[in-house]
Write a structure and sequence with these properties.
The complex is a heterodimer of chains A (about 400) and B (about 120). By secondary structure, chain A is an all-alpha fold. Chain A has helices spanning about 1-20, 20-35, 40-65, 65-75, 75-110, 115-130, 135-145, 150-160, 160-170, 180-190, 195-205, 215-245, 255, 260-265, 265-300, 315-325, 330, 335-355, 360, 365-370, 375-404. The longest helix of chain B is centred in the middle third of the chain and has 13 residues, at about 55-70. The chains are: A mainly alpha (about 400), B alpha+beta (about 120).
C-alpha cells in the first residue's frame, strides 16, 4: 500500500509533461493534421523522460539530494547560474501558459471571458501551495488526473484503425507538409522531455523521504507515471485523428477542439474535456510553481520543503508566490495561452542540452550514488538524449519560422 | 582533500540538519615562505556573485546598500566550527553567526510571510 501511494508522484509529474495545455494542444493538432503519423514522437519522448525521471529519482533516493543540488556542487556556481536562469525562464513561461489554460477551460465551460478567470485561478494555485502539504497536493492531482483517462475511453470506444495506429508508432517521413510535420514533432518532444519534470520529480522523492530500498518502486513509478501520461496523450491524438481530421478541423483553437469528446461520449464529453484541461493545467501549474522554489532553494542551499509552515521557510514560500504573480501577466494582457505555449516549448528545446548534459557527470558520481551509479544502458540513454537535445536545439527556431 | 572539489559549493547544515546555505567562497591565508593555509569559508550573495563575474559582487553590494541601507557582507566561518565533511558539511557556528546566515530569511519571514494568514501554520493542519 505504501508503495502504491508512491505512484502519486509519478502521475503528478507526468501531468506536467503530458496533460498540460501545451502538450494537449500539440497532441490535438498532430492528430487533426497528420492522424496517427506522429504517435512515434510521443513514444520516443516517453522513453527519454522515463529514463531521466528514473535516474534523478534514484539520485534522490540514494543520496537524499536532488539533481540541482548535485549539479551546483559538481559544476560550481559559474556553470550552475546558466541552467538556473534558463530553467526559471522556461518554468515561468510554461506556468503562464497553464494559468491561461486553466482559465480557458473555465471560459469554455461557462462562457465567461478568460480574463475574468485569470486572477481566481492564480489565487487558487497559490492557496493550494500555501495551505496544503506536498502529499495532499500529490495525491489529489493524481486521483483527479485519472479523469483524463476519458480520452482513452473515447479512443477505444470510437475504434480507430489499429493497423494505422501501430505503423504511426514507427518514425517515418510524411508524404506532405514536411515542415509542419517536423515542427509538430519537435513541439511534442519539447513538451514531453521537459527539464522541470525531472527536477520536480527528484525534489518530490526527497520530500517523500525515499531511501535506497525504494529503488525498485522508483523504477516502477517512473514507468507507470510516464506510461500513464503517454497513454492519455496518444489517446488525444487518436480521438483528434478520428473526430477532427475528417471534418477538416485543424485543432489550432481549443474552442473547436473542445467538441472532440462530444461525439463518442455525448453531452458529458464536452464537460469532461473542460474538466480534463482544467485539472491538467492546475496540476502542471502547481508542479511548475513549486519547481521554481525548489531549484532556487537547492541552488543557494536554503531550506526547501512544501511540508513546512511558510513562515519557517519564507524564501521558499515567496519563491512560488512571486512566480505565480509574474505568470498571471501574459493572460491578463490578453496573450493567447496556446501561442505562449508554442513559444515556451521552442525555448525548452533550445535550453535542453545545458540542463540534461550535466546528468552524464552527476549520475556517475559515487559520492552521491554509492554503488548505484549509472550502468552502461543508462549512460548510453543519457548520451543519446543529450545528442537528441542538441539536434532539437539547433532546428527548433528555424522550424518555428518556416512552419509559421 | 581537494579544496575546490570537496569544499566549494557544498551544502552546509546546522546541528538540527537544517540547510543554512552553501560554501560560496574559500579564504586562504597566504604568507611569504609558507604554504597557503585554509583560513575560513565564506557564505553570502556578494561572494557568490563575485564568482559568477568579478564585477557582479561589488554591484550586488552597492545595490543592497543603496536600496535597503544594509551592508550585506558575507559570513566567515572559521575551521574550528566544522563537523564531518561529506556530501554535506555540518557546522555548529553558534547563535550569532547562524542569525547572520539566516538574516534575509528571518527578515522576509517576520516582515511578510508570517503576516499572511496561514503563514505560521503547518500545512494540512
Amino acid at each position: 500500500m505504501k508503495n502504491l501511494t508512491k505512484i502519486g508522484l509519478g502521475i503528478l509529474t507526468s501531468v506536467g509533461g503530458y496533460l498540460e495545455v501545451g502538450s494537449m494542444g500539440t497532441a490535438i493538432q498532430a492528430g487533426a493534421a497528420f492522424r496517427y503519423e506522429l504517435l512515434w514522437a510521443i513514444a520516443i519522448g516517453t522513453i527519454c523522460i522515463a529514463f531521466l525521471v528514473e535516474m534523478t529519482g534514484r539520485l534522490a533516493a540514494v543520496s537524499h539530494h536532488t539533481v540541482v543540488a548535485a549539479v551546483r556542487k559538481r559544476f560550481g556556481i559559474r556553470f550552475q547560474i546558466w541552467p538556473l536562469v534558463a530553467q526559471i525562464g522556461v518554468d515561468l513561461l510554461v506556468l503562464a501558459s497553464e494559468v491561461g489554460g486553466a482559465s480557458l477551460a473555465l471560459e469554455l465551460a461557462t462562457g465567461i471571458s478568460i480574463r475574468i478567470w485569470v486572477l481566481p485561478v492564480a489565487i487558487l494555485i497559490w492557496a493550494l501551495l500555501w495551505f496544503a502539504t506536498f502529499g495532499s497536493i500529490e495525491h489529489s492531482v493524481a486521483v483527479l488526473g485519472l479523469v483524463t483517462l476519458s480520452f482513452s475511453l473515447a479512443a477505444w470506444w470510437i475504434g480507430p484503425d489499429w493497423q494505422a495506429v501501430r505503423s504511426g508508432l514507427v518514425p517515418h517521413r510524411p508524404d506532405r507538409d514536411a515542415a509542419q510535420y517536423a515542427y509538430l514533432a519537435v513541439g511534442i518532444l519539447g513538451a514531453t522531455v521537459s527539464p522541470y519534470l525531472f527536477t520536480f520529480y527528484s525534489s518530490g522523492a526527497v520530500e517523500e523521504e525515499w531511501r535506497a530500498e525504494d529503488l525498485m518502486p522508483n523504477r516502477i513509478v517512473a514507468a507507470i507515471g510516464m506510461g500513464f501520461g503517454s497513454l492519455v496523450a496518444m489517446s488525444v491524438v487518436i480521438v483528434a485523428a478520428v473526430i477532427l481530421a475528417p471534418r477538416g478541423i485543424e485543432g489550432e483553437m481549443y474552442q473547436q477542439a473542445a467538441t472532440m469528446l462530444s461525439l463518442p461520449l455525448g453531452h458529458w464529453g464536452f464537460r469532461l474535456f473542460c474538466l480534463s484541461l482544467f485539472i491538467g493545467c492546475v496540476g502542471a501549474a502547481l508542479e511548475l510553481a513549486l519547481d521554481v522554489s525548489y531549484i532556487v532553494g537547492q541552488t543557494f542551499g536554503w531550506a526547501w520543503s512544501e511540508n513546512q509552515p511558510p513562515g519557517d521557510e519564507a524564501r521558499f514560500a515567496l519563491g512560488y508566490t512571486i512566480a505565480i504573480a509574474i505568470a498571471t501577466a501574459p493572460s491578463l494582457a490578453g496573450i493567447d495561452p496556446l501561442k505562449l505555449t508554442m513559444f515556451s516549448m521552442a525555448v525548452t528545446v533550445v535550453v535542453l542540452p545545458v540542463l540534461v548534459g550535466p546528468l552524464l557527470v552527476v549520475m556517475n558520481d559515487a559520492q552521491y550514488l554509492q554503488e548505484y551509479t549509472n550502468g552502461w544502458i543508462a549512460n548510453t540513454a543519457v548520451g543519446i538524449i543529450v545528442a537528441l537535445a542538441f539536434v532539437l536545439a539547433a532546428i527548433a527556431i528555424p522550424l518555428q519560422l518556416v512552419a509559421q | 582533500m581537494d579544496l575546490v572539489r570537496d569544499l566549494l559549493d557544498v551544502q552546509l547544515i546546522d546541528p538540527n540538519q537544517r540547510p543554512i546555505g552553501r560554501v560560496d567562497g574559500i579564504l586562504l591565508d597566504v604568507r611569504a615562505g609558507e604554504p597557503p593555509r585554509l583560513a575560513a569559508l565564506e557564505v553570502g550573495a556578494v561572494t557568490l556573485a563575485r564568482r559568477v563575474h568579478r564585477s557582479l559582487g561589488p554591484a550586488v553590494h552597492r545595490f543592497v546598500l543603496r536600496w535597503f541601507g544594509v551592508s550585506w557582507r558575507p559570513v566567515r566561518i572559521p575551521l574550528a566550527h566544522f563537523g564531518r565533511v561529506g556530501v554535506d558539511i555540518e557546522i555548529a557556528v553558534g547563535d550569532r553567526r547562524e542569525r547572520r546566515l539566516l538574516r534575509l530569511e528571518t527578515w522576509l519571514s517576520n516582515r511578510i510571510v508570517r503576516r499572511v494568514p496561514g503563514g505560521t501554520e503547518t500545512p494540512g493542519r
